[in-house]
Specification:
Blueprint lengths: L19 E12 L2 E12 L3 E5 L6 H8 L7 E6 L2 E2 L4 H7 L1 E3 L12 H8 L8 H6 L2 H21 L14 H13 L5 E5 L7 H16 L3 E5 L3 H7 L2 E6 L2 E6 L1 H6 L1 H8 L9 H42 L1
Parallel strand pairs: 3-8, 3-9, 6-7, 7-8
Antiparallel strand pairs: 1-2, 1-4, 4-5, 9-10
Helix pairs in contact: 3-5, 3-6, 5-6
The chain binds adenosine-5'-triphosphate.
Length: about 325
C-alpha cells in the first residue's frame, strides 16, 4: 500500500481536518407503517472514521441508503459540504460520497481492472461523441483512467490480479475490489457497509489497516460493522442505532462502557426503550403467574405430602 491516492480532499482548498463534511439532520425513513429510521442526526468531520453499529434490523443500511440517494428520506435533510444532497445515487457519487454494499455488487464477468474503471466514470469528463469518435482526447482520458485504476489496485493490494475475472477472486479480495472501485470516484467520504462480513481475523486486520490508510489519504469514512473489535479499534467516534433511533454517540470507550449499549447487544430490556413499559408489564404478569403457580404447586405438594404422610402413617399404623 505505497501508492499515492491523491484525492480532491488532499488537494489545496480541501476542508481542514475537523470540518463537518456530512451533516444528516432528523433523518426519518418510513416504509408504510414501519419506521426504519427515526429522526437520526449524524455528522462526519473531515479526517474522521465514524462507526455506525446496532443490532440486526436497527436501520443502519436504511440510513446509509438515505445518505447515498438510494432512498429519499421521509423527513430530514442530508448535507454534504454544505450542500443538500441530490436525490439520485449517481449525483451523490459525483458530489463526493462513495459506498460499498453489504452484499458485494461487482461485475462478476469483468476483470478486476475493468471493475475499477467502471467506478471512474463519474470523474471522466469525456462525453458521448468523444467516446464514439475516439479522438486523442478520449485516448488521453482513457490512459489516465487506467493509470489511476492501477494505482488504486496497488493501494488495496490487488495490482497483481488486475486481469483476473472478478468472480474468480476469493471473498476477502472481492471486498477489497469493491473498496478500490468506490475510491475510483475520488470521494471525500467513503461509506462502508459491513466491510469485514465473512472475513477471517487476518483479513479483518488487513481491512482495518486499509481503512486507516484511506483516512490518511484525506478521505473520511463512515462504517457499519458488527465486529465490535474492528469498530472500537478503528473509529474516532461511534453512533449506536437501536430500533431506528440513535441511542448513544461518543468515542469507543464511552460507547463500550454505556450500559444501554451493552443491554442492546445482550438483548436485555433497555431502560428508555419505547417498548420497555409493555415489556415490564408482561414481565410483571409473568412473575405474578409464576408466583400463583408456585403457590398452587406448594399447596398441592403440601397436600400430597400430607397424603403421603397419612398413607405412611397408615402404613406405620399397620
Ligand atoms: N425497502 C424496504 N421496505 C420495507 N422495509 C424495509 C426496507 N428496507 C429495510 N426495511 C426494514 O427496515 C428495518 C431496518 O432494516 P435495515 O436493513 O436498515 O437494518 P440494519 O440495521 O442494516 O440490519 P442488519 O444489521 O441486519 O443489516 C428492518 O425492519 C427492515 O425489515
Amino acid at each position: 500500500m505505497t501508492t499515492d491516492t491523491t484525492t480532491k480532499d488532499t488537494a489545496p482548498g480541501a476542508p481542514a481536518p475537523g470540518t463537518t463534511i456530512l451533516d444528516a439532520r432528523g433523518v426519518t425513513m418510513r416504509f408504510g407503517g414501519l419506521t426504519a429510521v427515526n429522526g437520526v442526526d449524524l455528522t462526519v468531520n473531515s479526517g474522521e472514521i465514524v462507526g455506525l453499529i446496532g443490532p440486526n434490523g436497527a436501520g443502519k443500511t436504511t440510513f446509509f441508503n438515505c445518505l447515498t440517494g438510494l432512498y429519499i428520506p421521509t423527513e430530514g435533510e442530508v448535507r454534504y459540504k454544505d450542500r443538500v444532497l441530490p436525490a439520485k445515487s449517481f449525483k451523490v457519487t459525483a458530489a463526493g460520497i462513495a459506498r460499498t454494499f453489504q452484499n458485494i455488487r461487482l461485475f462478476a464477468n469483468m476483470t478486476v481492472l475493468e471493475n475499477v474503471l467502471v467506478g471512474r466514470h463519474t470523474r471522466t469528463k469525456e462525453g458521448f461523441w468523444s467516446a464514439v469518435l475516439r479522438g486523442p482526447g478520449f485516448h488521453r482520458a482513457e490512459k489516465a483512467s487506467r493509470e489511476r485504476a492501477l494505482e488504486l489496485l496497488e493501494f488495496v493490494g490487488l495490482a497483481a490480479k488486475a486481469d483476473h475475472l472478478a468472480r474468480n477472486l476469493p471473498y476477502g479480495e472481492q471486498r477489497k475490489l469493491e473498496i478500490a472501485r468506490a475510491l475510483a470516484s475520488e470521494p471525500g467520504l467513503l461509506l462502508l457497509d459491513e466491510p469485514t462480513a465473512g472475513m477471517n481475523p487476518q483479513e479483518t486486520r488487513a481491512t482495518e489497516e486499509l481503512v486507516f490508510a484511506i483516512r490518511d489519504k484525506g478521505i473520511a469514512v463512515l462504517v457499519i460493522e458488527h465486529d465490535m473489535r474492528f469498530i472500537f479499534n478503528l473509529c474516532d467516534r461511534v453512533a449506536v442505532l437501536v430500533q431506528g433511533e440513535k441511542l448513544v454517540e461518543g468515542d469507543s470507550a464511552t460507547v463500550q462502557g454505556d450500559e444501554r449499549v451493552v443491554a442492546a447487544y445482550l438483548g436485555e430490556p433497555l431502560a428508555d426503550d419505547p417498548g420497555a413499559a409493555e415489556a415490564a408489564e408482561v414481565e410483571a404478569a409473568e412473575a405474578a403467574q409464576a408466583q400463583a403457580a408456585e403457590a398452587t404447586g406448594a399447596a398441592e405438594t403440601a397436600e400430597a405430602d400430607t397424603t403421603t404422610d397419612t398413607a405412611a402413617g397408615k402404613e406405620n399404623d399397620r
